Amino acid sequence: STLVDSSTPQAMYSNVWQGYSMRQVSPIAPTSDHRSVSWSFRFSCKPEALHFRSPWTQLASGTILCLSTALCSRRQIRRACCRSSVAVDGLMIKPDECPELIRQSRLAHWVIRSSELKVTLSFLSDVFGMKVLRHEEFDRPCAITCNGAYDTPWSKTMVGYGPENVGYCLEVTYNYGISTYATGHGLAHIAIGVDCLDEAMKAARNKGYAVDGDVIEGPDSYKFRAIQQPTGRTERFGYVALKVSDVSKAAQFYKNVLGMMDLSAHQQVAIPDVPTQHSEVVGYSTEQVSLVLCQDDESLQCIGREQWDGRNAVAIPARAQRAVYQRVLHGVVGDVLHPIREFNELPQLRRLRGLPPMTCEPSPEEQLRALRQNPASAPPTGTLAVAILRDADGYEICLVSSETYDHAVLKAYNPDIVIDWLWRKDAQDGKRVSAPPHMLACV
Q1: What is the rounded CA–CA span in Å between residue 128 and residue 132?
Q2: d(CA 88, CA 348)
Q3: How far apart are the first and last CA of the chain?
Q4: Is there a contact between 392 and 250 (Cβ–Cβ < 8 Å)?
Q5: Element (H or E) spanning 428, and its range?
Q6: What gap in Å lies between CA 258 and CA 103, rounded to an integer?
Q7: pLDDT band per the 50, 70, 90 thresholds, residue 142
Q8: Are 114 and 172 contacting, i.e. CB atoms less than 8 angstroms apart?
Q9: Mean pLDDT of all residues in the chain?
């Protein structure tokens, strides 16, 4: 077998394989590691072409044959890969390094784990007044590990205060069969604005949760800091505090790679047990959720990243997403956990990835043509590009193309959804059946 371009005619080997017949046996599905298609060929000797040759002649001929074939094959592979590479590059959205475009991004949500979904939702509702925005069930683990590194069916429940396209929220993931999670030490706490601090603390104590000052330890040991909601501010979530090993290095990653701004001068955030000079606030806007990077004696020794720490999601314009992805791919800080991929992509790209054809209306070609001319024109069912990166301390970052993501989550917004707890109880007891139609993932 050898790698050749799918359009390469069988006759290209006719001058090389003299004395042999060749027939195509079967195509091998292409993989994501190659940009060319693999075909399996079977070669058989023609006795009438070799019967007059001596053994030594046949040996020398065979050696020359093998060498010439190897050289020919390598040239053909290189040419095929070049042709395919040019074709694929022409189909991809081009990166745009424009700082103003990158700063149109926003922090979208943080992923947390739950060992008891009903308990977690009750806590977030009774203490902080959140509501379920949408709920989805999955029969198989996520291909890009949204549910963590767990090979199990799972569910995703988005919880917050309003539509995801305009507000921050939490993605609460539940893995069937997983009863506990090893607590990490990287995610310090999540700050949430409340109208009355006393009422929030009282509600937490009444439910039996530990309260330390203005920090509440909720289900699965996640810590939430209740802060007074600023007058005139729409966003209820304030910030996410992360422990880092080197605050300067961590801040440089978010500013230089993800295009965030230093908001320390605008948002004075005092983190318990962390000196002000050992923390930095970064984000895209003072009106949005920010990240507070803090360094203490414990984080200097070991961050202790676990599946429990979850993942940060960033909605970013498609062209800026490509630029950020290239920065991480070719940079020295951070790395790629799951390579960028498109959903509802062109048939040519799907074939190169070994994926089956996808039918949708309008056609992928029409969607992508409009998307590349103007990403803001992406229809609700257009191309969603996703890449999973890691920062300098190993925190996971999910980059989603905002033009399509915002349309999709707005369409999926369903605050009136009723979770089928009886169905979930059967699933937990090992009697899982296919998810009800109203609980299937729509994004």
Answers
A1: 12
A2: 8
A3: 40
A4: yes
A5: helix 421-428
A6: 9
A7: confident
A8: yes
A9: 77
Cis amide prior to 362 (ω within 30 degrees): yes
For residue 403 the two structure tokens come to 């033009």
Name residue, tokens 């959720």: 289
423 CA to centre of own chain: 29
Q: State both tokens at 262.
A: 């230093």
pLDDT attached to residue 239: 96
Q: Cβ(276)–Cβ(267) under 8 Å?
A: no
Q: Give which of 134, 125, 194 is closest to 164, Cα–Cα.
A: 134
Statement: residue 24 has pLDDT above 60: no
The CA-based diameter of the chain, rounded to the nearest angstrom, is 100
Residue 374 has pLDDT above 80, yes or no: no
Sheet order of strands, 20-28 included: 2-4, 37-45, 20-28
Q: Which of 82-91, 129-138, 185-194 has the lowest mean pLDDT?
A: 82-91
Helix 117-128 with 197-206: angle, nearest 10 deg: 150
Rounded to an integer, the average pLDDT of 100-113 is: 96
240-to-4, 86, 161, 170, 289 alpha-carbon distances in Å: 50, 42, 17, 11, 8
> What are the structure tokens assigned to 252, written together?
């440089």
Structure confidence at residue 6 (pLDDT): 33
Amino acid in position 17: W
Task: Describe the crossing of helices 318-330 and 402-412 by its angle, rounded to 10 degrees.
Answer: 120
310 token code pair: 């979850």
CB 410 within 8 A of CB 326: no
pLDDT at residue 274 in the model: 62
Distance of alpha carbon 146 from alpha carbon 169, whole angstroms: 15
DSSP structural state of residue 380:
T
Q: At 294, is the secondary structure helix, strand, or coil?
A: strand
| pLDDT digits 0-9 by tens, 396-431 | 999 999 988 888 888 889 999 999 999 999 988 888
- pLDDT bin (cut points 50, 70, 90) of residue 14 is very low
> Are the CB atoms for 226 and 200 separated by under 8 Å?
yes
